[in-house]
Amino acid sequence: MERGATLFDWGVIIPPESWQPYIVEHEYIHMLQAQQLGLIGRQQTPAWFKEGMPFFVSEPPAYDLPDYARPLVTQYKAWERKVGRNNVWKAAASL
Question: Rounded to an integer, what distance in angstroms lies between the CA atom of residue 65 and that of residue 73?
């Protein structure tokens, strides 16, 4: 079962057992990506952006960061450091 789901740029669904601040924030970051980049724009971004950003920004505890997400977070973090947090949306539009 998913811990949460984002519905395009409309909202999120979070089951009661997933009401942890970092899980809620993770899902809302997906929604923000869709709002900022458009649905197609978000879909066209690489996995390290789509998943790396929400995992990095929401800061889940280490025990709850899936193994598959670790390299995505590392890649996103390096990219954000390069472009600067204030320029993330503008830079993401050209990924």
Answer: 10
**Average pLDDT of the residues in 19-41:** 94
pLDDT score for 12: 86
Distance between CA atoms of 47 and 44, rounded to whole angstroms?
9
Cα–Cα distance, 65 to 91 (Å, whole number)? 26
Domain count, the chain: 1
Predicted structure pTM score: 0.89
* Cα 11 to Cα 4, 27, 48, 75, 84, distances in angstroms: 11, 9, 22, 27, 27
Domain that holds residue 52: 5-92
Residue at 43: amino acid letter:
Q
Mean pLDDT of 31-53: 95
Residue 75: what residue type? Answer: Q
Q: Give me the percent of the chain exceeding a pLDDT of 70.
A: 99
